[in-house]
Amino acid sequence: MITEPTAQPADRPPVLEMRRITKRYPGVLANDGIDLDVRAGEIHALLGENGAGKSTLMNILYGLTTPDSGEILMNGAPVTINGPADAIRRGISMVHQHFMLVPVLTVAENILLGDEPMANRIFLDRGAAHDRIRELSRFFGTELDPDVKVGSLSVGWQQRVEILKALYREAKILVLDEPTAVLTPQETREVFTVLRRLTTALGTSIVFISHKLYEVLDIADRITVIRRGKVVGSRIPSETDEDDLAEMMVGREVQLTVDRGESHPGRPLLSVTGLNAKDDRGHVVVHDLDFEVRAGEIFGIAGVAGNGQDELVGALTGLRRPTSGRVVLDGRDVTGASPRGLHDAGVGFVPGDRHRFGLVLTFPLTDNLVLNDYYHPPYATGLRRNDGAVTAYAEQAIAEYDIRTPSATVSASTLSGGNQQKVIVAREFDGDLSLLVLDQPTRGLDVGSIEFIHRQAIRRRDSGVAIVLVSAELDEVLELSDRIGVMFRGRIVAVLDGRTADREEIGLLMATGGRDSGIQPQIVEQAS
Amino acid sequence: MNAIGPALRRVRDVALLPTIAILLALLFGAVLMILSSPLVKGFDPTLPLTSYRALVVGAFGSTTGLVNTVVSAAPIVLAGLAVGIGFKAGLFNIGAQGQFLMGAVASTMVAITLNDSPAVVAIPLSLVGGLIGGLAWGFVPGFLKAWTGAHEVVTTIMLNYIAIYVVAYIISGPLRGEHVTFARTDTILAGALPVILGHDGHIGILLVALIVPAAWWLLFRSTIGFEIRTVGANPDAARYAGMRPRWITVFTMSLCGMLAGLAGAMDILGQVHYMPASFSTSVGFDGIAVALIGRAHPVGILFAGLLFGAMQAGAGLMQIQAGVPVQMVSVLQAVILFFLAAELIVRRVVRVRTPSAGVTELSTVSRTYGEQTGL
Fold first, then answer.
1. Which residues of B fall within a CB distance of 8 Å from A385?
2. What is the ipTM of this complex?
């Protein structure tokens, strides 16, 4: 994927050295004597699971928090970084996973925000700033109009604005936190080209935080793996592979792709015809969807976030009433049924926003595990809740789904993201199901939890459940789906065979909705 | 530290900050008394001791004092529940005062109408009247919140004012007594609550003694309570789980209204025995304070209510023996609230390190108005 020759910065002196950085939070040793050095013009990947200590280390570098011990050296001289403003002044810039942009302001206004060039004491010097932005934006291959509103740009371009902001402030060290999480494969490649250009042309050093192994292997000059606050080791991409890195990250051998085995789709369980749905602002964002999912089949929905997936999921799970169309589950019309009606009809739902919908964080695991089953026997008799039955079920679910928790009565907020998601999976995957709707089931989770959840999905598929999988992670869709529907602007523009589909082709469909942009659904029926 | 069980530790964690707030308030009151003593009888650094002693003796030192404490506490505890259960559902029921007044006036209407009937008929029906009066004033803001999104803080405050004038109209108009010198009703006879303890200990205190555990059971052991708490903690998750947040909002506000209404009925039928046109009371507002001090937990509210009741019962003796005016009690109550609200400052000063999660009642208070809760 790299388009320009890789520089060899190995012999250059480090511009940044972090030495024996230690940071302790109550109960956690977030950073335990971490050493990290970044050379001029180097792309240095920082790899680790959630909670491994990457963010703490970068927050220390950015001056957001101070280390308990250890030192930071820039160009060989020790420095103390007092807050982000100080970091920026020293040439350190950070691009966050969630962009810190104001959508109603223009590109130029966003870039100048916080560091406005003054023509005199009162007025901004817009002219000079605009020229500089145009000049810098040539790094991206095209010139970016500084007067365009950020809100009207695609996510990929918004990220470029973030990078531009860093360049404008003459960043020598650019920290990118999970920069590709929201991008299509094509956009990712373009961003990689830009990053490569920055290192060769400007000598910028880049710290690239990620948990996507193949990306790190593709872009980085060096890879440092962190686990539980400690550096496990450093590698050069040519001397390692995904399995090696995954093992370093997790501390044990992991199976990166679950063996999905043969699927044996049966009769159609879910059939959606002519479905339309509106978003919260009243715009129709799901247009005339038709699709079928069979028993024992995983139907993956790929698409760039915001192409109607949320509203489709809402319409399938009772959280949103479709404006027209029909949803038929196992021969029963369930269009517009309530969440409880669907739950009783055998629909399990792992919501995309687990903190907003999936859990009540202040409640104990026991209550969360029966969140939608609390009202009927054995968990309740009439109005009276049966704590004994709830606790017994919770303990069984905790054991069966390998939820790591000190007890069943701690509140859900004390669990790690992976274990929180396992609570939801335990609740929703259990019992007699005909349909499972999985919305971003592994977003933000560690490799071990992802592996576990994928296995459970395959297990339920094999038990004859129809599964709809919506995910922004194309790899996840490719890995699990028997058929893949690509969603673009509220329509399924193509349905592909999950085993033969090509990620480049899907990426293109995700980005453009099809080459001739005429929306011609190309249906590939699963051979069975 | 490790010797105490997890249940006890939870009680300690929950009760610690209110206790500190109460102690700080007493300290503040002491300073205030010492500083103001020269204005009355000359500088007297022992004045706080004398007055707090009188306060305690007045509230607990005699059977009469004890009964007074319990009787004063009864309606406050009910009003506290009316606010506290609302907190659990994520609702800030400032309207307990209005619901209290409507309950009081409705029960008075029934009691006056039934003044010649036997007590067995008049008492239950008058109490039901109080429930219905409060219910009306709770249902309306609940309904408006659930179906139009009108914030309950705004609507209940408005309804508080409406209640004041509705009471004034009813009492000075249709319900004005015949042989009275100012605007009030006739004396309630048949509907008056029988005394079972000492001079003033009416049967209502028994009712409260039953309602507190019932409220606890409802909140923590029933499916409805689970729904109430889920809606309060996360309305989106409640909807996802198949609960009906709108319905729960209406139900909870109605229930809260009934509790406050019952408090009003109890005050009239048990203590005052008539209703004046301008019924000066602050029980509804005390309910807010009590719910906050009791951390929205029925048992906490019971203790906080008893504390407020004791302060009212002992205030008289404090004024007589120490010359400190009864209004000092209101000052102390306000200062307790202040320290509770300034939780962060208290934490810093006293270096308390209990988990701050679970203080849902305070976040309910501070939640922004007009926010879309996704009902």
1. 221-223, 226
2. 0.86
Residue ranges of the alpha helices (H) in A213-273? Answer: 213-219, 242-250
CA nearest neighbour of A513 among A311, A362, A302, A346: A302
What are the helix (H) ranges across A370-431? Answer: 387-400, 417-429
List, for residues A161-219, the tens digit of each pLDDT value.
888 888 888 889 999 988 887 777 888 888 898 899 889 888 899 999 987 888 899 99
Distance CA B267, CA B72 (A): 9
CA distance A463 to A460: 5
Q: What residue type is A9 in one-letter code?
A: P
Judge whether A54 and A210 are in contact, CB under 8 Å: no
Pairwise CB contact (< 8 Å): A357 & B240: yes
Put simply, whether B7 touches A (Cβ < 8 Å) is no
Listing DSSP states for A82-103 in one string gives: -HHHHHHHTTEEEE-SS----T
Contacts 24+ apart (CB under 8 A), A6-12: A6/A196, A6/A221, A7/A41, A7/A199, A7/A200, A7/A221, A9/A39, A9/A40, A9/A41, A9/A42, A9/A199, A9/A221, A10/A39, A10/A221, A12/A39, A12/A40, A12/A41, A12/A42
Q: What is the DSSP string of A21-67?
A: EEEEETTEEEEEEEEEEEETT-EEEEE--TTSSHHHHHHHHTTSS--
Q: What is the pTM of this model?
A: 0.80
Q: How far is CA B98 from CA B109, B126, B260, B281, B364, in A?
A: 16, 18, 8, 11, 20
Instruction: Please give the single-letter amino acid code of residue A371.
Output: L
Residues with Cβ < 8 Å from A238, sequence gap 6 or more?
none
Interior CA angle at A223 toward A222 and A225, to 5°?
A: 155
pLDDT single digits (tens) A18-38: 999 999 887 678 899 999 999
- Whether A319 and chain B come into contact, CB under 8 Å, resolves to yes
Q: Looking at residue B356, what is its pLDDT?
A: 46
What's the 3-state SS for B278-322? CCCCCHHHHHHHHHHHCCCCHHHHHHHHHHHHHHHHHHHHHHHHH
Q: Using alpha carbons only, give the angle A42, A45, A48 rounded to the nearest 5 degrees.
A: 165
Contact, A387 vs A369, CB < 8 A? no
The residues facing A177 across adjacent strands are A209
Tens digits of per-residue pLDDT, B72-104?
999 999 999 999 999 999 999 999 999 999 999
Summary mean pLDDT of chain A = 87
Q: Is A358 on the interface with B (CB under 8 A)?
A: yes
**Distance between CA atoms of residues A82 and A67, nearest Å:** 11
Residue type, A99: F
Q: Provide the token pair at A275.
A: 């479905």
pLDDT at B373: 36
Taking the C-alpha atoms of residue A435 and residue A443, their distance in angstroms, rounded to an integer, is 21
Contact B237 A384 (CB under 8 A): no
Cβ B166 vs Cβ B102: under 8 Å: yes
Provide φ and ψ at A322, rounded to 5°.
-70, 145
Do residue A363 and residue B224 have CB atoms under 8 angstroms apart? no
Residue A171's H or E segment, with its range, is: none
CB interface of A with B, residues 323-342, below 8 Å = 338-341
Tally Cβ neighbours within 10 Å of residue B45. 10
Give the integer Cα–Cα distance in Å for B335 and B21: 8
CB contact under 8 A, B230 and A371: yes
Q: Position of tokens 């009471």?
A: B167
Contact (CB, 8 A) for B252 and B259? no
Share of chain B above pLDDT 90, in %: 73
* CA trace torsion A104, A108, A113, A116 (10° rounding): -140
**Strand residue runs (E) in chain B:** 195-197, 201-202
